[in-house]
Structures are given as structure tokens and as C-alpha cells.
Specification:
Elements (H helix, E strand, L loop, with lengths): L2 H4 L10 H4 L8 H14 L3 H6 L16 H15 L6 H4 L8 H7 L3 H10 L6 E6 L8 H5 L9 E2 L8 H5 L3 H15 L4 E6 L2 H13 L8 E4 H11 L10 E6 L2 H6 L1 H13 L2 E4 L24 H16 L4 E4 L2 H8 L8 E4 H8 L12 H9 L21
Parallel strand pairs: 1-2, 1-3, 3-4, 5-6, 5-7, 7-8
Helix pairs in contact: 7-19, 13-15
Length: about 400
């Protein structure tokens, strides 16, 4: 099964809007029509495959509601598979494979943190709301567990469950399907009215992607932590304790365009309420540029394509006259954290900032976890050199 099989591409009118409006490729009308026609007829487009950063933006521009991003990714990987060029790093990034980056990361946590994750793996008692904590959020488990702002929310986040973002973004429909089915099976045991997602990516994948692409819905309501905090702020249940006194640009993650203007507005309003002056980047909203993370599949995980996209982002920041950038997505934050200092850009992780502003003590900011990611990759030094046969290997993540 694949996204292509779920969508009716006969609906495509080949208007070219998806590529004309793309903030990266910016094709003229005739070129866009030619490239999308070629992609649909032959499964190949040299220019699209060389330039696309798989950022979701084109999905917003299709008048028929088709998701070009997923089509491009699938066809691109099909071409790579025919050449036997699928990096072994792809399945390593999934939660549930062996070896898995996530299980390596969790194994390096302290005894206290491991006990918290063990507690979070148990089904909580019936509750009106719980806080769902996904893959990267679990690295902040100590601060989340001891949060005063989030005190009323029971925490839940078994270490082997995932919203499915990485397999979906990296083109493995099978791994995504296996991952989300496992998660949904556990979610059925929850006796709750509403789930609060600590991570915006989880919120996107458990709402937008789950419903609009996979065709399933959760048996309870879903809300992002940002929306939950805004509710509490407006009702006076939480109050600003430590204003941030910060002027910064804001990097909007790929899924902000997927979730719509209300989600983006909520992010900015909440950050502003915490004492931040948010300056828009030259590229924002529908024209936002990605952090470059997914573009690495174009070059078999060599960093060249990543750096190229990140330099565009840093140039955008400097064009405002600032050197600060707030990031709400944990994946974007970790991806940018490895290079931002080289460009003289200071990153601010919004979940840490907001919880601290409203009264929490953040003892382990996300940036302090960067060494763990480096160690996880060092445990498997040959992975970047390995390729996997995505069609015939046992337990293939693409078949």
C-alpha cells in the first residue's frame, strides 16, 4: 500500500499551481505543467528530484486537494530503489526497528529518567485529559514529569510507541502503517476525553495525517500543548512568572502550513504572551522554507543538501537584522542545532521557553541532549555506508 494508491491522481488537472507556488523551485507555468505531467506519466522528474525539499508546502496549493509532496517522495524513492540506493540510516531513524536511534537514546538516560519512562508506559487511570509525550519529548521526561504548569495532566508515552512521523516523512508507508496501528491499539485502552500533545509534530500526525491521509480517527479529542496553554492562560489558570524579554524570528516547521493559520497564530500569540517580540522571516506562511531535514534523502544522507537548505534559512534570519530564531518543532530544533552556531544564529526552543516563562524550572533543555544523538550514531558507525534492499530484505520497511 502507498499514498499513491490512496489518492485518485486522475483528478489532477496538471494546472501546475503546486510547483509555480513552491517557495523552493519557483517554476514558471509552462515548466511546472511539463514537470508535473512527466512525473505522473513516467514517475520521474529530474528537476523536482534534484530540488524538492519535501516540505509539504505544495500540498497547500493543489485545488483538487491532492498531496503532491507524498507523490514526489514515493516516486523519488522508487527511482532510488531501482538503483539499489536506499540508505540503512532510514530504518535506523524509526522507533520500532532494530537497531533504532530512539531505543539507543533512551538507554542512555539516567536511572531516574528511565523510571519515569517506565511509569509513562502504563495506562493511566480514567481521566478527563492526559499529556501524550512522543519520541523527542521523552528526552525531557524529568522536567515534564516535574512540571508545575503541566501538573494536572497525567503523562503517557510508552517508549516503543510513535505518531509515525519519521517513517511517513521518509517514504515508508509500511513502517508508518505498522507504527500507527500499534499506537492506535494502545490508545483504544485509554479512558479519556481529550489528549494533549506535547509535540506539535505528534499533533499533526495524530490529527491531520491520521484522518486526512490514513483515514482513521482517534476515539477522543486531540489538542496541542500550545492550544492547551493558551486556554489556561486566557482563563487565568496559569500566569506569566518569568517574562522572556526576547526579540526573535520564528521558524515555522513544515506542519504549520498543514495545520492552518489558526495553529500558526496560536504559536505566535502564546510566545508573545510570554514576553517575546516575534519578527516574521522574509519567507513565512505558505512561503516558509524548511529546516532541510528530509532533503538529505536526495544525497543518501550526505549533509550537503541539508546545509544548502539551512543556509537559506540563516540568510532569512540575518535579513531581519536579528541573530535569534525560535523553533517550535523538536525535529527542526535538533536538525538546526548542529549548524546554527556556525552561522552565528542562536536557537530558542519554544516548549522549554514557554514552560519556563509560566513557572517551570527547566533543568535539561533540549539542546543539552545533542551529545546523546551523536553517541547514538557513533554506536553504529558503518550505517551511513550501508545500503538496504528495500524490496527483498527480511522485514523490509517498504514492502
Amino acid at each position: 500500500m502507498s499514498y499513491t494508491q490512496l489518492a485518485d491522481w486522475n483528478k489532477c488537472t496538471k494546472c501546475g499551481d503546486c510547483l509555480v507556488k513552491c517557495p523552493v523551485m519557483q517554476m514558471d507555468k509552462s515548466t511546472a505543467i511539463a514537470e508535473i505531467t512527466n512525473l505522473l506519466q513516467t514517475g520521474y522528474s529530474d528537476r523536482i528530484f534534484k530540488e524538492c525539499t519535501f516540505c509539504f508546502r505544495c500540498n497547500s496549493f493543489c485545488p483538487e486537494g491532492l498531496r503532491l509532496n507524498e507523490l514526489i517522495l514515493e516516486k523519488f524513492l522508487d527511482a532510488k530503489k531501482k538503483k539499489g540506493k536506499i540508505s540503512a540510516l532510514i530504518p535506523f531513524l524509526f522507533n520500532g526497528t532494530k537497531p533504532s536511534m530512539w531505543q539507543d537514546l533512551y538507554s542512555m538516560l539516567s536511572k531516574t529518567e528511565k523510571s519515569i519512562l517506565k511509569k509513562w508506559s502504563e495506562i493511566p487511570p480514567p481521566s478527563k485529559e492526559i499529556l501524550w509525550v512522543g519520541c523527542i519529548g521523552r528526552l525531557s521526561c524529568f522536567d515534564i514529569e516535574n512540571s508545575t504548569v503541566l501538573r494536572e495532566l497525567p503523562k503517557f508515552g510508552p517508549a516503543d510507541l510513535c505518531c509515525g512521523e519519521l517513517p511517513y516523512r521518509l517514504g515508508s508507508w509500511k513502517a508508518y502503517s505498522d507504527t500507527i496501528e500499534k499506537t492506535l491499539k494502545v490508545f483504544e485502552k485509554l479512558n479519556i476525553e481529550r489528549m494533549v500533545c506535547y509535540c506539535g509534530s505528534c499533533y499533526n500526525y495524530l490529527s491531520n495525517i491520521l484522518k486526512n491521509v490514513y483515514g482513521r480517527e482517534l476515539p477522543f479529542k486531540l489538542i496541542s500543548m500550545y492550544e492547551w496553554l493558551n486556554e489556561k492562560r486566557k482563563s487565568g489558570q496559569i500566569q506569566l512568572k518569568k517574562p522572556l524579554h526576547l526579540k526573535t524570528t520564528h521558524h515555522e516547521s513544515c506542519y504549520v502550513s498543514e495545520l492552518g493559520n489558526d495553529f500558526g497564530r496560536c504559536l505566535r500569540d502564546l510566545y508573545t504572551s510570554a514576553g517575546v517580540e516575534v519578527v516574521q522571516l522574509p519567507h513565512h506562511g505558505e512561503n516558509n522554507l524548511s529546516c532541510g531535514a528530509v532533503s538529505v534523502i536526495r544525497t543518501l544522507f550526505l549533509p550537503s543538501s541539508l546545509f544548502k537548505e539551512q543556509l537559506k534559512k540563516y540568510k532569512d534570519v540575518k535579513a531581519t537584522g536579528l541573530r535569534d530564531m525560535a523553533v517550535n518543532c523538536p525535529g527542526c530544533f535538533m536538525t538546526l542545532a548542529f549548524t546554527s552556531w556556525l552561522a552565528g544564529i542562536k536557537l530558542h526552543y519554544m516548549p522549554d521557553d514557554l514552560l519556563k516563562a509560566y513557572g517551570d524550572t527547566v533543568t535539561k533543555p533540549l539542546f543539552t541532549r545533542i551529545p546523546l544523538f551523536m553517541l547514538a550514531f557513533m554506536k553504529h558507525p558503518l550505517l551511513p555506508l550501508k545500503r538496504v534492499d528495500a524490496e527483498t530484505s527480511p522485514g523490509s520497511f517498504y514492502t
